[in-house]
Structure to design on (277 residues):
């Protein structure tokens, strides 16, 4: 995490936390943050006009990441959370560079740290988009934490549209999951990292496919716990109780957006504002 101490001194607990993702998948992070930190004002930006990021080149994702960060700075956040695994894997340094010294947290580091802590046998599976897996960023982060750990990765691109379509417990999703995960299971993993914003929606089905003995790491939950730790350490937790609904910004209104938003956020859709990146 990059923190400019001089800048930190001027941050106030009442300022909002800004979260962004390529689309609506990052609402799984908002959902976990609301559960853990109900007092915080949350502003979420979903770049729904340019989703998916996971199939794009690093160059494009890095440009988008810079633009998304600049947009969120207008809301004077006390912290920026990169909910998108693809951005966390390929462009976290860009967000840190653009963030004007505000603390930046990404799902990838939080998920990796939790996986390294939880594994017993040292064999960790990671699933994500093509871009995230091709970047090797999860493997590198986990090896940096503990070089004795073995990481096995698999891109599971079809999980994104399946989650968006609400194919949560569908037979077709189970068959695809069995096929994708076979290779990882052959390495006797005991921990599986959900390295994509959309995958927590499929968590119960994935757990059924891999079996109860494999611990599933939800990066959304991991980053929410890390946010709580960092804000508390910096005395930046909001103490006033307001339970604000999150403010949702989007760059386009996707088809069937209400149903999709509610699926990912778990509550009735709050106010949505259309913005230009
Ligand atoms: N948000 C992306 C991620 O977590 C998934 C969707 C996309 O490809 O943009 O990697």
């Amino acid at each position: 995490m990059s923190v400019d101490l001089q800048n930190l001194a001027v941050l106030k607990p009442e300022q909002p936390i800004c979260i962004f993702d390529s689309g609506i998948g990052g609402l799984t992070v908002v959902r976990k943050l609301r559960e853990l930190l109900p007092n915080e004002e949350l502003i979420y930006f979903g770049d729904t006009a340019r989703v998916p990021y996971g199939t794009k080149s690093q160059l494009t994702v890095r440009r988008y990441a810079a633009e998304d960060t600049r947009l969120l700075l207008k809301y004077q956040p006390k912290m920026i959370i990169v909910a998108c695994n693809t951005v966390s894997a390929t462009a976290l340094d860009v967000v840190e560079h653009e963030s004007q010294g505000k603390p930046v947290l990404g799902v990838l580091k939080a998920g990796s740290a939790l996986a390294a802590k939880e594994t017993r046998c040292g064999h960790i599976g990671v699933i994500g988009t093509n871009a995230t897996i091709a970047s090797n960023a999860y493997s590198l982060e986990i090896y940096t934490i503990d070089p004795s750990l073995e990481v096995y990765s698999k891109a599971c691109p079809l999980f994104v549209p399946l989650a968006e379509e609400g194919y949560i417990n569908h037979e077709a999703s189970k068959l695809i999951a069995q096929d994708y995960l076979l290779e990882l299971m052959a390495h006797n993993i005991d921990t599986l990292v959900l390295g994509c914003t959309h995958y927590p929606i499929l968590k119960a089905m994935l757990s059924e496919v891999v079996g109860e003995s494999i611990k599933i790491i939800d990066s959304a939950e991991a980053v929410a716990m890390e946010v709580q730790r960092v804000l508390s350490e910096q005395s930046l937790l909001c103490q006033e109780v307001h339970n604000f609904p999150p403010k949702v910004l989007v760059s386009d209104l996707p088809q069937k957006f209400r149903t999709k938003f509610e699926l990912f956020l778990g509550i009735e859709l709050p106010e949505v504002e259309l913005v230009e990146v």
Remarks:
- DSSP finds 13 helices and ten strands in the chain.
- Strands lie at 17-21, 42-46, 79-82, 104-106, 123-128, 150-155, 191-195, 215-218, 247-250, 272-274.
